[in-house]
Please model this.
Amino acid sequence: MKTAPKKDFLKIGNTKILPGERKRVHLDVAALFDFTELTIPVEVIRGKLRGPTMFISAAIHGDEINGVEIIKQILQKNILSKLKGTLIVVPVVNIFGFNNKSRYLPDRRDLNRCFPGHANGSLGSQLAHIFMKEIVSKCTHGIDLHTGAIHRVNLPQIRACLDDAHTDELAKCFGVPVIIDSKLRDGSLREAARKKKVTSLLFEGGQALRFEARVIKQGVRGCMAVMRKIGMLPPTKSRLHKPLTQVYVAKSSYWIRAPHSGSFRTVKIIGDQIQTGELLAIVSDPFGNHPFEVNAEVGGIVIGISAIPLVNKGDAMIHVATFSNSKRVKHAIEQNN
Model:
């Protein structure tokens, strides 16, 4: 691998970063109505040797903060001396939502439906445009970190569009047992990144507004594994690092919805294997009268549960992913915890 020439600088915002340097950059976004200036914090680590350029981003949904801690722990590792290429980390993309402990932007837009954005568009469109221009367009790879939405708990999982062989390879390398073959959604970062030919993964696990040690550990381990896979870091020599021998791609997934209004009590937890027709929860009124049993439509693995037990008829309660062999997936999940 050749040493990068000194004139090979990377420019983000108004800051130039040379090979072998580590710098923090603040990208100007906009001011609040009280004239408080807000910026997107970015840290750039450039190895002395040439290699891929990868971004790791978190808090595109401002209340999904497990990723913030994942990035913090990655930054605490001494990787500059070993790094080939460039790592760009953005712990908080939606700085507006983060400060308000909210998923959304001040105008209630979802930033992950605003990509690729426009310089003269809405606040979300401007923010997406800046992120694409200053970060994504300068990368070869990316990992976007998420959790479940507010009051929902998600099993750690990778979501990716697996029709691309390189994306499929990196999704399996990340090292969580469950991969969702998730099609691209209009306005999403993944869709915009793919159009720029940037290979990207979405890691999701846990719940909003919480730090969860188990999820964070899996996220850190997965991001480092991907960096090793693409040659940014040397292979690990640690005997403690035991990558999974098998991961599983979900054939499909579905939400089980409340058959009646009331409160529900689940009899399953995240990661449980379920069988077709098996009892998952019971919905009843405040007196416990007229209970409604909620049964699995198709067998699989529980990958998401609503943390609020109060439901109206039709509300999403339990998210189930289906596999050709759910028993093996259950075993892999247990081994990975």
